[in-house]
Amino acid sequence: MMKLYAALAVVPALFLTSAATSQETYDACVGKFTFVESGATYEDFDFWVGEWQVVATESGDLRGYDKIEMIHSGCVLKQEWHQMDDLFSSAEAPVRIRGTSLTGIDAKGRWRQLWTDNSGSNILLTGGMDEKGVMTLKSDWIEVTTQTGEKVRVRNIWHWAPQDDGTIHNWGEQQRDSETGPTTKYYDITYHRSVKGGLAFGLRTPKPE
Fold it and tell me: What's the sign of the alpha-carbon dihedral 14, 160, 172, 194?
């Protein structure tokens, strides 16, 4: 496996050019590179790439469709989410969520995701693979006012756990107050790979390799 050492990780440009051969470029996102500060590789999140039919984990009800593709020579993942129910609709945002995220690795070897959607949400999350092989990204702490007028500190924590059957278990939590504060799960969904079948998508059971 090729290594991308710290000296390379802090270079802001995506291409490194030799002074002797200025016409040659080196794409830092192709190949099995490792960031030595974190152990992250560009392949950590490959399991998320594809077109997906997404259902509620407990009930199996359809939640939405998601498309994840690699862009910029595999350096960035682009997400296009289409919510198919009203789970996150409200009086302030009476629409079904249409969201986009861009996800990549920063110079310190941390996975970073920027999410934005048509409800006005803009969330930046940072993290990486945990010891259980779950991609875990956390937002910064923000101060919000509850319906009772109380001001509290909260952050979002999102998890993606690839399963042996080819599905992905994805859930989101909101944590209050501190690193050890209580967490509340506010969504729990499962990704199934989709195949196009006329006007609709059908669930497809992945064939064993």
Answer: positive
Q: Is 94 exposed, middle or buried (0-12, 13-18, 19+ CB in 10 A)?
A: exposed
The string of DSSP letters for 90-151 reads -SSS-S--EEEEEEEE-TTS-EEEEEEETTS-EEEEEEEE-TTS-EEEEEPPEEEE-TTS-E
Q: What is the pLDDT of residues 46-57, one digit of tens each?
A: 999 999 999 999
Question: Could you say which DSSP state residue 50 is in?
Answer: E
Q: Of the ranges 113-122, 124-133, 189-198, which one carries the lowest mean pLDDT score?
A: 189-198
The encoded tokens of residue 101 equal 């995220």
Domains of the chain: 47-203 (2.40.128)
